[in-house]
Each structure stands twice: as C-alpha cells, then as structure tokens.
C-alpha cells in the first residue's frame, strides 16, 4: 500500500509538491500563532507576585513651605491611619508596582550582560499589605533603615548571580555595595509583561502611604479621608491625592488590554486564513480526482476504504511536512530568533500538530463524502 501511495503521489508530483510546501508554511504559521496567543494569555492569567485588591494609595502634602513640619505631620497622620478601624495594615512610601517604566534602571548582570531592573522603595509592612511572599530570608524590619540591605525578586537574583538562593551575598551598583537580605517571589509590573527583575530598598518616605482596606469598606473609607487628613493638617492646609491600586492598575493596563485583544484577533485571523488555505486546497485536489475515486467506488470499494486511502495519502504528506516545520522553528530558535517562547514551546507544537491534523482530515473528509452522490452513468461517461 505504501508503494502504491508513493507511486500515486509521484504521479502528481508538481501539485503534491506545492501542497507539501503549503503544509510546511502553514504549520510554521500555526505554531507561531498558537504560541504567541498562549504567551499573551499566560501573562494575563498567571499571578503577578502581589495582590492589588482592596489596596489604597494616599499622598498628602501640607501647603506650608516647611519640610520639618511636613515630616512631623506625616508621622502624626501615619499614627492616625494605624488606628483606623477600616484598615487592616498600612505602609509608608509609594509602592509603584503597577506603574510600568517608573523607577526602571539599567544594571549590569552576570557575565557583564545588561538588564533593566525596577527599584521599589518600601518599609517593613509593604509585604503584608501587598501579599508579597518570601522565598528565602526575611522581609525588612525597622532595623534595616539607613542600611544597604535589599530584597531581590527571583528574576533579579538570577540576573545578578545566576541563581535564586543568594541571601547574605552582595553586589555593587553605581559604586555602592548592597547586601541581599532576602529573595521574594517573582514580580510582574503589568499584566502584559514577563516577570521583571525587581529590587526593594527600605525607605519609609514622607507624604505617601499605601494600605489594605477591609473588604467592601473602600467607599466608606474614601468618604472619611478628608476628615482624617483635616484633623491632622488642619482645614484647607494640605494637598491630597487618593486612589485604589485596582483603579491605577485598570488605568495602566487598559491600553495593554486593548493591545491584547488586537493581538489575539490578529492571531485568530492568521489561524482562520491557515484553516481556509489547507481545507480549500485539499478539497480542490480531491475534487479533481472525483471521477477516479468514483470509479473505485463503483468497482466495489467502500466509502470508508476510499476515505482511509486518501487520508493515508495526505498524512504521508503532512507528517514529514510538520517535522520539517519543527526543524525550521528549532533552527530559528538556535540562531537566536525566538519564533516561539521557550516556556510554551512544547504545548504550542503539540496543539498546532493536533489542529493541523484535524484540518487535514476535514480537508479530505468533506469532499470524499460527496463521492457516493455521484451518478454512475456520469462517472462512466467521463471515463
């Protein structure tokens, strides 16, 4: 049977060669489309390393041009917020986790390779407010104020040292030496980015607070902010800014969400074009042979036998074509051109193979089902 299939394919070598080339190209397009869609969806589906739910940000500054008095008022406001019944935890500073691009610095990592790292300034309560987990070592305490201690995300540790467990080791940045107090979980600045190297410093700054609000109490707390601040700073003696981290996250990621939808639509369009190309070409090629196949049907072959034979012919083309497509992708990957993310390489190839197999099967089955409806007299006349 295999010899007969090869003989039949070789008898139409020009047409089958084009189909073989089409299968290679469409397989590569299918892998890249499915792989790209999986990458983007993974960014949005996986945890970001912190929880913005029920987290508020408050920035307050007095209208007095007196930095010392500002600092005193800031401490008094912090104490007032600590005793607020609507808050479960509070931290000083301005944790810019959702703001992609802010406080991003270029650093030199292992083997002299540059990378971008996010610098975030926090205090001893930041991890509990944002639900950041420690992998190794411990989070900051008040004793870390005015020291060179830092906490690295797992990606920052990998970039600087080539491994994650690097507590008590040190590195130099801008002629200053820092020692690693601990390693926290991976941090992603936005929903559309990969985990970002992040470096946390202890800095309980003035004017800024972020805090965990009790569930379903955000509206009540927002209405009470003016009176809380006014009781410390005095009426009309301050400038205030308040927002929830969820709102900031929505604003920062609305453009990313639009880009995601546009990206997925493009990938879906590419998959649909690939689907149409495969089915239409196979359908046309089989339709051209309908008289030949009809004669086989008239001479006693069952429809299932014909379908099996034609499927075997097309699988004989598809499987080698898909193997060549994989070789092309792997060669591009080896050359440094990432057609598919390494994280989803295997699943992208598997899903693409299954979908291409289904499309090849449909491209054969649909026209084959029409064979039994051919008129015997018409078949004989055409022959």
Q: What can you see in these coordinates?
A:
The protein has 383 residues and is α+β, with helices and mostly antiparallel strands. It has two domains: 2-45 and 254-382, no CATH class; 95-204, no CATH class. 53% of the residues lie in helices and 18% in strands. It is built from eleven helices and eleven strands. It has helices at 2-11, 13-45, 67-82, 126-130, 154-161, 218-233, 245-288, 290-298, 303-334, 345-368, 376-382; strands spanning 55-62, 87-92, 104-108, 114-122, 134-137, 149-153, 170-173, 176-184, 198-202, 208-213, 238-244. The strands form two sheets. Strands 3, 4, 5, 6, 7, 8 and 9 form a seven-stranded mixed sheet that branches. A four-stranded antiparallel sheet has the order 2-10-1-11. The radius of gyration is 32 Å and the shape is elongated. 31% of the residues are buried. Residues 375-380 have low confidence and may be disordered.
Pick out its properties.
18% strand; alpha+beta; single chain; 383 residues
SSE topology sketch:
Elements: H1 2-11, H2 13-45, E1 55-62, H3 67-82, E2 87-92, E3 104-108, E4 114-122, H4 126-130, E5 134-137, E6 149-153, H5 154-161, E7 170-173, E8 176-184, E9 198-202, E10 208-213, H6 218-233, E11 238-244, H7 245-288, H8 290-298, H9 303-334, H10 345-368, H11 376-382
Parallel strand pairs: 4-9, 6-8
Antiparallel strand pairs: 1-10, 1-11, 2-10, 3-4, 5-8, 6-9, 7-8
Helix pairs in contact: 1-9, 2-7, 2-9, 2-10, 3-6, 7-10, 8-11, 9-10
């Amino acid at each position: 049977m295999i010899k007969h299939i090869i003989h039949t394919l070789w008898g139409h070598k020009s047409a089958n060669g084009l189909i073989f080339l089409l299968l290679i190209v469409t397989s590569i397009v299918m892998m890249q489309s499915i792989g790209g869609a999986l990458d983007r969806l993974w960014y949005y589906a996986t945890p970001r390393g912190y929880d913005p739910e029920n987290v508020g940000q408050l920035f307050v500054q007095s209208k007095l041009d007196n930095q010392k008095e500002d600092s005193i008022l800031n401490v008094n406001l912090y104490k007032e917020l600590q005793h607020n019944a609507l808050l479960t935890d509070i931290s000083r500073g301005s944790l810019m986790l959702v703001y992609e691009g802010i406080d991003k610095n270029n650093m030199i990592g292992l083997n002299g390779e540059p990378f971008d790292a996010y610098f975030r300034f926090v205090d001893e309560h930041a991890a509990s407010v944002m639900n950041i987990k420690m992998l190794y070592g411990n989070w900051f305490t008040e004793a870390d104020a005015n020291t060179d201690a830092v906490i690295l995300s797992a990606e920052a540790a990998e970039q600087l040292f080539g491994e994650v467990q690097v507590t008590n080791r040190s590195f130099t940045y801008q002629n200053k030496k820092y020692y690693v107090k601990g390693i926290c979980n991976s941090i992603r600045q936005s929903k559309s980015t990969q985990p970002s190297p992040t470096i946390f410093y202890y800095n309980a700054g003035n004017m800024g607070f972020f805090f965990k609000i009790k569930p379903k109490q955000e509206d009540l707390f927002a209405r009470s902010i003016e009176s809380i601040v006014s009781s410390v700073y005095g009426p009309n003696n301050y400038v205030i800014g308040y927002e929830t981290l969820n709102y900031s996250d929505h604003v920062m990621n609305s453009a990313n969400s639009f880009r995601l939808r546009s990206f997925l639509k493009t990938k879906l369009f590419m998959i649909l074009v690939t689907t149409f190309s495969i089915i239409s070409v196979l359908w046309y090629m089989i339709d051209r042979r309908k008289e030949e196949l009809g004669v086989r049907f008239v001479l006693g072959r069952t429809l299932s036998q014909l379908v099996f034979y034609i499927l075997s012919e097309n699988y004989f083309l598809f499987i080698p074509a898909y193997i060549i497509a994989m070789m092309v992708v792997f060669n591009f990957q080896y050359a440094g051109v990432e057609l598919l993310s390494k994280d989803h390489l295997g699943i992208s190839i598997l899903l693409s193979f299954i979908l291409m197999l289904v499309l090849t099967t449909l491209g054969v089955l649909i026209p084959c089902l029409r064979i039994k409806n051919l008129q015997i007299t018409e078949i004989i006349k055409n022959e």
